[in-house]
Amino acid sequence: MDATHGSREHHDGECRDDGDGLAFVPGPIGPDGLRQIDAYWRAANYLSVGQIYLMANPLLREPLKPEHVKPRLLGHWGTTPGLNFIYAHLNRVIRERDLDMIAVWGPGHGAPGLVANAYLEGTYAETYPDVAHDLDGMARLFRQFSFPGGIPSHASPELPGSIHEGGELGYSLAHAFGAALDNPGLTVACVVGDGEAETGPLAAAWHGNKFLDPRSDGTVLPILHLNGYKIANPTVLARIPREELRSLLVGYGYEPTFVEGDEPAIMHQAMAAALDAAFDAITEIRIRARRGEAGRPRWPLVVLRSPKGWTGPGSVDGKPVEGTWRSHQVPVAAVRENPEHRAILERWMRSYRPEELFTPDGSLVPDLAALPPRGPRRLSANPHANAHRGAPLRLPELRRLAVTVPERGRTKAEATRALGVYLRDVLTLNAEARNFRIMGPDETASNRLDAVFEVTSRAWQEEILPEDDHLGRDGRVMEVLSEHLCEGWLEGYVLTGRHGLFATYEAFAHVIDSMVNQHAKWLKSARDLPWRRPVPSLNILLSSHVWRQDHNGFSHQDPGFIDFVANKRGDTARIYLPPDANCLLCVMDHCLRTYDRINVVVAGKQPALQWLDMDAAARHCAAGVGIWDWASNEGEAEPDVVMACAGDVPTQETLAAVDWLRRYVPELKVRVVNVVDLMTLPARETHPHGLDDPTFDSLFTRDRPVMFAYHGYPWLIHRMTYKRTNHGNFHVHGFIEEGTTTTPFDMCVLNRLDRYHLAQAALRAVPGLGARGEHAEEALRDALAAHRVHVCRAGDDLPEVKDWSWPDRHGDEHPDRRRIEADIMQCDTAGAEEPRPARTADDRACNA
Amino acid sequence: MDATHGSREHHDGECRDDGDGLAFVPGPIGPDGLRQIDAYWRAANYLSVGQIYLMANPLLREPLKPEHVKPRLLGHWGTTPGLNFIYAHLNRVIRERDLDMIAVWGPGHGAPGLVANAYLEGTYAETYPDVAHDLDGMARLFRQFSFPGGIPSHASPELPGSIHEGGELGYSLAHAFGAALDNPGLTVACVVGDGEAETGPLAAAWHGNKFLDPRSDGTVLPILHLNGYKIANPTVLARIPREELRSLLVGYGYEPTFVEGDEPAIMHQAMAAALDAAFDAITEIRIRARRGEAGRPRWPLVVLRSPKGWTGPGSVDGKPVEGTWRSHQVPVAAVRENPEHRAILERWMRSYRPEELFTPDGSLVPDLAALPPRGPRRLSANPHANAHRGAPLRLPELRRLAVTVPERGRTKAEATRALGVYLRDVLTLNAEARNFRIMGPDETASNRLDAVFEVTSRAWQEEILPEDDHLGRDGRVMEVLSEHLCEGWLEGYVLTGRHGLFATYEAFAHVIDSMVNQHAKWLKSARDLPWRRPVPSLNILLSSHVWRQDHNGFSHQDPGFIDFVANKRGDTARIYLPPDANCLLCVMDHCLRTYDRINVVVAGKQPALQWLDMDAAARHCAAGVGIWDWASNEGEAEPDVVMACAGDVPTQETLAAVDWLRRYVPELKVRVVNVVDLMTLPARETHPHGLDDPTFDSLFTRDRPVMFAYHGYPWLIHRMTYKRTNHGNFHVHGFIEEGTTTTPFDMCVLNRLDRYHLAQAALRAVPGLGARGEHAEEALRDALAAHRVHVCRAGDDLPEVKDWSWPDRHGDEHPDRRRIEADIMQCDTAGAEEPRPARTADDRACNA
C-alpha cells in the first residue's frame, strides 16, 4: 500500500504544521490516537532540536537569545524526524500487540531523536537521575548533547536500548540478524538509512533472511528509510524508479510495503497500516513455521520515504532546506549571530507547540506520558539490548578431550581438529540454552572443525539437495562467504548476551578490521558504564594461517590482523598463539569464559608435532609465556642464547633449530622460551597481561642474544619490547611475504626452512664457537642448498625436513653425534666458502 | 531466454562427452562453428587439468604413471570449465563484432583456465618464450603451475591480460567499472562467481551502472556464474528461486538473460544467443545515448548456470563429484597412490580427445589456432589490461596556486580548500585526455575540495532534481557511500593506466585495509615483471582526520590506517603528513606524478595557521624532513631539546609549545624538526626514503631529548626509529582516542591542549632550568586548568588557545616577557602543589 505524496511551497523558516494542527484522515488509528501519536512525535522532535541547539531556556519560556544557543552546533537533524516518526509507530505496535522488540538504528547520528525517545520513555532519567523530567533535567538533556563532559552525537553505549552506534555505516542489518538468532519471541526492527544502504556490508546483509529459522529464531523487520540524500548527494535507492526498488527488495526475498509522503496525518495512518500488516504477516509466518508447515517465508519490509529534515525549516536564506541535502546536519546555522536565523529556530521549535506537550515544570503532559510501552517493553529498556541472556557457557571437561602426547614432539595432530571436538561438546552442553554459534565464510570443514557436524548443521533456509553437506534449518553453524556478515552477526549475537566463535582465514581478517575496531570501541566505552551488563567476548579464530597457504597465492599472505588488533587500547584486545592442540584447547576454553574482550587466536589446521600434554598445556597457557626446560640445556648457568617462539609453525621451526644446534654444537647452552599470550610482551602499564620487568628479564635474560621466531611481521615484537632491558639483543624472525614467480608453495618451503636460518642466526650471535661452529654453519648451508634443489625438482620438502621430529636423545647421546664429530675432524675449514646469502634470486629460477 | 536443463547418471570416473562427440543443435552457431568452439573449450579444459595434475607426459602419449603426477595437487578445478566456456564464447563475439574487450575474472583461482586460454591465444608464449607451443612448452606450462619456482594458483600479475587476481573475493565488479570509465569503446566482461556474489563489496558493486555514462564511458557486461557451491556450502544466489534472482538483478538495474544447463551443444547455442543479444543491446544503448536520446539504459547481464566441475569426473569412490561441492579443488586426489583414481584422471583427460586438439609435437591443430581473436583483440593481449593509457598527467604550475604566507604562522588557510583549486586545474588540464577522476564517499564538498565543481560535477545517471548540487551525467567526481566501491573503482581506473585520487575519512579508511593490501601486493609483484607497464599510483587523501572530529564520535577516531600501510613491504607505500596548505600542494603534485605506489596523504580541512611559502614548502617536501630554523633558537651549539612534529595539528601544537617555552624560558635552546615524509624515519635498508644514520643524527641529535608530536598512534614512530642512535630519548606524543562520557568535542579540546603537554614534557626532560622552569611549569598547569573550566562552561576553547598565532617577536623581545619576569620574582615556588595528573576523571565530570 502506498501513501499519496503531497507537498507545499515554503517561505523562509516556515515549518510544516506551523501551529495549524492536524486534520483527521481515516486509517487504523482513531482521531484521539492520531492526535496523540502526532503529539508524541512532536515532543520527540522538539527535544531533538533542543539537544542540537540549546544550552538554556529549554521550554522557550522567554524569547530565544544568543546565549541560550550552544556556541558550536554539532548534531545531525536530517534523519532525526524520520527516526522519531518510526519510533512513535513502533511504540504503538508494541503496546497494541505486547511485542518483545528491540530496535537497531542504522543512522546512529540521529541520536538526538533516540535520546529524546529514551527520555520520553523515562528510561533516560532512570539511568541518569540528573536528567530528570523537569526543567533542570531538560536543560541538562539539551546541554549535554555533543558538549564537553556530555554525551557523543551518535547512538553510543551511553544510550539505553542501543546495541549499535551507527557511526561507521554498514552493519545495522547484520547486527539485527545476529540479535534475532535464538530469540524466537523477539522482533528486531532495523532502520536502514538510504545512505548506509549503499555500503557493501549492508547490501549483502539483506540476505540474512536465508539463515533465520522462523521456528527458533526471532524476526528482523527492516525499515528502509529513504530520505533522499546522503551528505550532499542523492542516494541510489531513493532515486531509482520505485518499481526497480521494489524488484530489488523482492529479489532480496522480502515483501515490501511503501509508506511515502510528507503530510503527517496521512503518513501516520499509512505507517500504522504498514506496521499492522507487517506484524500480521510475521505472526502468520511464525505460526505456520512452528506448526511445522513447509514453505519459504517472505518476511515483510517497510519502505518509508519521507523528506530529509521533515518538519524542519522549509527554507533558509531563500534556499530550500526541508527535503534537501541542506538538512543533513544543522539546517539553520548562524543562530547566535544572525537574528533572522535565530527567529527561524524559534519559530521552528514553537511549531511543535511545546506548551501542549510539556507542563510548565518540564514534565510530559499525562496524555503523552501514558503513551509509550511500559517497563521492559520499552525499546530503551528491553533487556535483550543489555545482554540479559549473558549467562556463562557450560564448558566440557578439558582433560577428557586432551590430545595424547606420549612423548614431546614425536607425534602429530591437527590442532583445529581437536578444537572441533571441543566445540562439538560446547554445542551439546549448551544445546538447550541455545546460546552458542559458530560463524565462518564456508571454512568450518576446511578448517577441520567438522566434528561439530556430528551434533549440528549449517543454518540454511533455502532448498536442500541430497548432495548437500550438513545443511539444516536450525543449524548452529552460520556460513556465508562474507566476513562482514559473519562478524556482524556474531557482534549482534554477543551484544545481546550470547556466545560465539568466528573462524576465518588469517589473511582476509583485514576485511573486518574496521568492524572489529568499532566493536572494540563499543566495548571500551560500555565497560565504563556501571549499568551495562558485560558482553561475552568476540572470539576470532584465525586458521588457514599465513604459514601454510600451499593452495593459494601471495594474496593469501598477511599476518597483519594481529598488528591491527594490538593497536587497540588497553584492556580489550587479547592475542593468543597456542603452539599445539592442547594449548589451543586451553586457550579457547579460557576465551569462551571471558566477557568484554576481543580474543584473537591463531592456530593451524595441518598435522603438526605436539609438545605439551594437557596438564603442561594448562600451566603454560595460564602463565602465557614460559621456559621450556625439557627443550633447553642451559643447566645452572645463564644460557648462551635464548630461542624464543610464538606461533605453532615458528615453535616447530625453533625446536628443529634447537635440535640442530644441540646436535652440532652440544656445548652451546640454549634456553627455549615459548609465548602463548602475546600481550605478556609489552610493559604492564600498556597492557594488564604485560610482564613486569624482572619477570621479563628472568625469561629473556638481560644480555644474551634472543632469537625470536614469531608468527607475524617482526615489527610488532620490536614495538612491544623496545623498552625491555635486553631489547638490543632481540633478533626477530617474522613471516616473510613474497610475490612474483615465488609461488605460495615456495614460500611455505622457504618459511619451513626457518629452522636453518634460526640456527644460523644463533650461531652467528654467539661468539667463540670455533671449529664446531664453523662446521655447523657449513652443514647448515649444505642442508639449505640440498633442500632447495630437491624442492625445485620434486615439488616437495626433503623427507628429513618434512618428517623431522624432536629426538628422544640429545647432545652427545644423539645418534648423529659420532658422524658429526668425524666430519669435523675431516673438515678443512680454511677452504670454506663465503656464506651465500640465505635467499637469492637464483632460488626463483629453479624451474627455469 | 533460458536453456533447458538435462542431466545424466554418472558412473565412477565417467565424464560428460566421454569420446562420444557433439550432436548438432540449432542456434546462432552453424555446425562447423559449433564443433570448433566446443573443441576450443575442450582444449582449454585439457590444458587446465594438465596444469593442476601433471609434471610430465603432457599429451598422454604414454599411459599415465604416478611419476607424471605432481606430488602435491594445489589447484581449483570447480570453476575452471565454466570460465573456459565463457572465454571461448567471448572470443567468438570479439571476432564476430571486432570488439575491444577486456575481462575481469572474479573467480581468479580458476587461473588454470585463464592461463590455458592465454596459452591458446599465443600470448603466453610471446610473454614467456620458454612456454612455447610444443611438447616441452606444454610440459613447462603444466609443471610451473603452483609449483616451486613457477606461477601462483591465481590470476596474478604474471598472467597476461589480467588486472585482477581474484584471491580475495569481492572486488571484481568494482574493478570492472573502474576500467570501463572513460573508455567509451571498451567492454569489460566481468565474471562474478556465486561465491563472490555473497560478499558485501560485490553486492554493492552491481550499482556501478548508476555512475556509468553510456556516452563517454565503456560498458560492463556482468556474467553471473552460478555453479551452485562455494567450498562446501551451496551459494545463496544459486539456491533462491530463479524468479527471485531475476527480480534481484532487475532491481539492480539490469536486463538478465539466463543460460542454464549442462549439455554442451545446447549450452553453446544458448550462450552464443545470450551474448549476441547482449551486444545488440549494448550497441543500441550506446548509439541512442551518443545520439543524445534521453532514457535510462538497462544494461544486459548474463546468468550462466552450469555444473561445478563441469565435464570433470561424474563420481569418484561412488560419490557424485561433477555438479557438487566435491569439485571445488581437486576432484580426484589420490592419483599417485591409487591406480583407480589415476585411471579416472586419465579417462577424464582423454575425454577431451587431445589427439584431435593438438598435433603430435604439441602445437594446436590449425583449425583451433585460427579461432581466437588476433593481436590486441585477444583478451590476454588487450593493451587496456596493461595500462597502455598510462601517459603522465598534465599538472598545473604550483607557484600560481600558492597560498600566500606573508608571515609564518600568522595567517590561516584551509589546506584542502587550496588543494581543491589545484585539483580543479588538474581536471581542466586533462579534460581532453579524460584520464583523471576523484572518488569519495560523498565528502568532496565537506572536505572543502569543492572548487572542482567549477569545472566538473558528480557522476550520476539517475534522475536529477533542481535542488541537487552539481550532479551531471559525465561528472568526473564519483561519490557513493561505499569506501569499497570508491577504492575498487579507483583501482580499476589506475590498473588500466589512468590517474585518480580517493578522498575519505581517516577513521573509516580501515574499511578498505584489505583492498589496499591486495593492491599493494599486485603492485609489488607487477613491478618485477618487465613486460608490465607502470601503473599510476593509488592516491589516498585522508581528510576529516582524527584530530578534528568535532561533529562525530569516538567511532570516528582512529589514525591506524597509516600503521596498516606502513606494514606493507619495501617500495610500495608512501605516507605524507604535510604541515600546511603549500606543503599539501607540493606533496599532491608529487604523488600525481608517481607510478606503482600507494600514496597516503593526511591533511585537515579546518582553517589552520600557515608556515611555509611555496618555495620553502617545495624545498621542505623535497627533503621530506628538516629543521625549521626560523622557529628554533639553538644558535651554534647543540640544542637542549628537539621539538619534532609530523602532521598538521601536531605541528601547530608543537609551535605553540615552542612559543610558550621561548616566552617562559628564553635561555632554553630549542630545535624544531618537521617531518612531511614519514618514510624518512625508518632505516634506509627498510625503506628507500629512510635517512642514513648520520643524517638522522644530524637532525635529531645523538643525545638530546626529542619531544615528537605525531599525528597517529605513537608506537609507529617508536617502531620506525628503535634502531636509531638517539631512540632512547624519544618521547612520542601521539593521538589519544577516548570513549565514554568524553565527547569527540572534548577530545578535540584535550588534543588541542597538547601544546601544554608538549611544553611540560620538554621542561621535564631538560634538567637544571631552576626557578624559571618551575615557574613555567606552574604557569602551564594554571593554563590547563583554566582552559578546562572555560571549555566545560562555554563549550568552546579559550580565545588565547583558539586564536593563538606564532608571534613576530620571541624570547626577551616577546611582549609577555616583562610580565613573566615579574611573576617569577613574586612566585613562591616552595609552596607549589604537586603537579596534578594531566588528564583526570574530574575532567569528565565537568558537566555534572
TrEMBL record, chains A, B:
GO-annotated molecular function: aldehyde-lyase activity
Entries under SUPFAM superfamilies matching the protein: Thiamin diphosphate-binding fold (THDP-binding)
Domain (Xylulose 5-phosphate/Fructose 6-phosphate phosphoketolase C-terminal) ranges: 605-806
Xylulose 5-phosphate/Fructose 6-phosphate phosphoketolase N-terminal domain ranges (all copies): 31-387
Transmembrane segments: none
First-level EC class: lyase
Superkingdom of origin: Bacteria
Record region (Disordered): 1-22, 803-848
Keyword Cytoplasm part of the UniProt annotation: no
Cofactors (names): thiamine diphosphate
Keywords: Lyase, Thiamine pyrophosphate
Basic and acidic residues bias: start-end ranges: 1-19, 803-822, 833-848
EC numbers: 4.1.2.-
Alphabetical list of InterPro entries matching this protein: Phosphoketolase, THDP-binding, Transketo_C/PFOR_II, Xul5P/Fru6P_PKetolase, Xul5P/Fru6P_PKetolase_C, Xul5P/Fru6P_PKetolase_CS, Xul5P/Fru6P_PKetolase_N, Xul5P/Fru6P_PKetolase_ThDP_BS
Pfam family, any one: XFP
A biological process term (GO) from this entry: carbohydrate metabolic process
NCBIfam families named among the record's database cross-references: PRK05261.1-2, PRK05261.1-4, PRK05261.1-6
Family that this chain belongs to: Belongs to the XFP family.
Protein name as it appears in the record: Probable phosphoketolase
Protein's organism: Methylorubrum extorquens (strain ATCC 14718 / DSM 1338 / JCM 2805 / NCIMB 9133 / AM1)
GN (gene name): xfp
